[in-house]
Amino acid sequence: IINIDLAQEGNEISEDLWGIFYEEINRSGDGGLYPEMIYNRAFEEKNIPHTLTYQDGVIKAPSKVDYESGRVKNWQTEFDVENKTDGWKLESNSEADASMKVVTASPLDPATPHSLLMDIQSNDGVKLVNGGFKGIAFTKGEKYDFLFYARPFAFTGPITASIVDTLGNVVATRAFDMSGNNEWDAYSFSFTSDVTNNALQLELTFGAAGQVCLDYISLLPQSTFMDRKGGLRKDIAQMLADLNPAFIRWPGGCVVEGCTMENRIKWWETIGPHITRKGEWDLWGYHNTYGFGYHEFLQLCEDVGASAMYVANAGVSCAARNGDYYEMDQMPEIVEQVLGSIEYAIGDVSTKWGAERAKNGHPEPFPLKYLEIGNENSGEIYAERYDMIYDAVREKYPDLEILNAHFFFTPEIPEYYTEEKIQMLDPHWYRDAEFFFANTQLFDTIPRGKFDIYAGEYACIQQGNMYGALSEAAFMTGMERNADIVKMASYAPLLENVNYRNWPTNLIHFKNDSVYGRSSYYVQKMFAENRPDVNLDTQLDWVFPEEKIIGGIGLESPSDLTIKDLIVDTEDDVDNASILSDENNWKVVKGTWTVNEEGLKAEAIPTLPQGQRAFDFEGDVTNSIHNEQIQAENLVMSF
Ligand code: AHR
């Protein structure tokens, strides 16, 4: 029986409680939400920031360290960086027929300094092939746009662009004669696919010998989410929209900090024409074009009716421990960049960045509501820089909600923070299901009136299954019940291209031709679709099914427990059985219980709340009790 006093007012639940967290990880952007189908389209893959050192083709990225525990995070720190033609291969009759190399002379755009120099020695139809992000997928009846840039050197072509299947059947083709000499020119064609196939590849066939530089070779679907030109992949964006997110966080995540300060994501490099976007090799080990950049993120927020949360670098990189952070006299540059990001989103069109937004097609302000300063930062270096950015933003944008990225969950904030500048903290939990089940009451213990909480990243990473999803749901009930202090939450990470997993568990999986949510996705969706307005205090009265009581158990001592009388009035095998307690507290014992003349034996450990199921077992209960067992003063066995 649930008792509720309907006269009570109850705590209001934040309308922004359930949102989503986007980061470029698991190749969630290129080849995913940003539906570019050509892998390494601008030959910028493996273009490594100069502040990172590498030897023998392997980069040694600085590890991120937990400031408080000193524990090095378990992530990849070595990456192969040599193969700059990654994703491209030559097909010719003999090796002497052609060669390719990545060059930097006279780039198509200075932001993307690399292009591919093809040296063709044969007239026999040398081919340059790209298999996309492990395949290119078309849908019958859909339209596609193909584009590439070429700079021929006394080479008139033709170059024939074809999309072919694994048997060599041509799905689309167009031959381009080259004009001009030593000049970049664009070549493009659009077509409708008459096949549905997810194993296609692009072939560029060179009709004659000669030299030509190639760059920005792109293949995009015409049909996008909300029909925006060059916009987002429809099915993936729809999955996000279906989560009904109150807010969207961008760009992360660790990419906010970067391996080094130079490597941090710089929002102003992610707007404007895609061809001018520098992109970045990010610490998840690949180059990202930022096709899904700051502008597209803000546009997506508007399109799905979500508030935007931008996360800015706080002058501190992942390698802060190694001294890679901005000194205080360098910080005005960072402050300027943070203010610029806000101005781009909501500034008047008469301002520098407001005008830029208008130039990019959106004179109206975007729904930016939150700014988080830093990601998973902590410590005095961060606190000092946080205060500086906070002051500048608060002065210019008094209504913007500012979040502190203090990484560790502590009821008291460390003294190096200026308390009045901390309104909301962002703790993260990547734990196992047992942690989430055991911590449904974690938020009940947080002192009120000091700061609010944004649970910015959490996920059951040990069990990426229904059990894990249920544990997240249990944890979320704790957030919802404490929504007077937990104002926002977002599961992380959001997206995974199943062929490029960086992180153990991710909410939405996609392939080139399909997308699906893991069970955790449906937990998120269920909560978001059933948002309560207020929290009422409830009392639960458990009622046990009398007719099922078949035994009682005596207790000898709390530390060495012996259950004397376990009476089971059946000799049949039992498919599913459980033991429930009618006491307030369970004493749950894990380990193997054995039945002998003295009864059942085990050692005592923690307490579980009333009503929680202590163990389930299958089999013949007259002979065995299986591995996980319990002790309690009064036991009820039900079948
Ligand atoms: O979500 C994956 C990573 O986990 C994020 O980039 C980072 O913030 C956290 O450590």
Automatic annotation (TrEMBL):
Catalysed reaction, written as an equation: Hydrolysis of terminal non-reducing alpha-L-arabinofuranoside residues in alpha-L-arabinosides
EC number(s) reported in the record: 3.2.1.55
Keywords associated with the record: Hydrolase, Signal
Keyword tRNA-binding: no
Entry keyword annotation includes Methyltransferase: no
Highest taxon, organism lineage: Bacteria
Family: Belongs to the glycosyl hydrolase 51 family.
Stated name of the protein: non-reducing end alpha-L-arabinofuranosidase
Organism: Reichenbachiella ulvae
Phylogenetic placement of the source organism: Bacteria, Pseudomonadati, Bacteroidota, Cytophagia, Cytophagales
